[in-house]
């Protein structure tokens, strides 16, 4: 490869990295063919750390599970929604794509309701532009609800799971 091609390739890779940042992508892969036996295969990726805001409720005045159950019933009785997007433990999709619950067809799913996960564990995969993006657990906890189905299309901000 000539020096000229090398400089052009470096500029090309820098442009890909900028494209990654500007479009809030996590990974980009491109193959550039120069000729029969000359090509450049580039994969640029970045780790995106999700921030999750968690509401902490004040301790109940009376011990036991009854006070915790009462607030959950109150919003439904007053016409409040059961929207998973409003749940403080919701983990949302960082991109538009298709959800996969396992690494490959026939494999065990990454998570199940009631399973304990550690921060950074893969919850599921969102495929975007033929790139498999592992969605990590933002914190340790227990899977309370899986909101999406395997193979479902999701938008940016769509609730995926409830993690408590």
UniProtKB/TrEMBL annotation:
Record GO terms (molecular function): acetyl-CoA carboxylase activity
Domain Lipoyl-binding: 88-164
Domain of life where this protein originates: Bacteria
Metabolic or biological pathway: Lipid metabolism; fatty acid biosynthesis
Biased composition (Low complexity): 69-82
One BP term from GO: fatty acid biosynthetic process
Any one GO CC term of the record: acetyl-CoA carboxylase complex
Residues covered by region (Disordered): 51-92
The keyword Oxidoreductase belongs to this UniProt entry's keyword annotation: no
Keywords (A to Z) from UniProt: Biotin, Fatty acid biosynthesis, Fatty acid metabolism, Ligase, Lipid biosynthesis, Lipid metabolism
InterPro entries reported in the protein's UniProt record: AcCoA_biotinCC (IPR001249), Biotin_BS (IPR001882), Biotin_Carboxyl_Carrier/Decarb (IPR050709), Biotin_lipoyl (IPR000089)
Function summary: This protein is a component of the acetyl coenzyme A carboxylase complex; first, biotin carboxylase catalyzes the carboxylation of the carrier protein and then the transcarboxylase transfers the carboxyl group to form malonyl-CoA.
PANTHER family, A to Z: OXALOACETATE DECARBOXYLASE ALPHA CHAIN
Protein name: Biotin carboxyl carrier protein of acetyl-CoA carboxylase
Source organism per UniProt: Roseobacter insulae
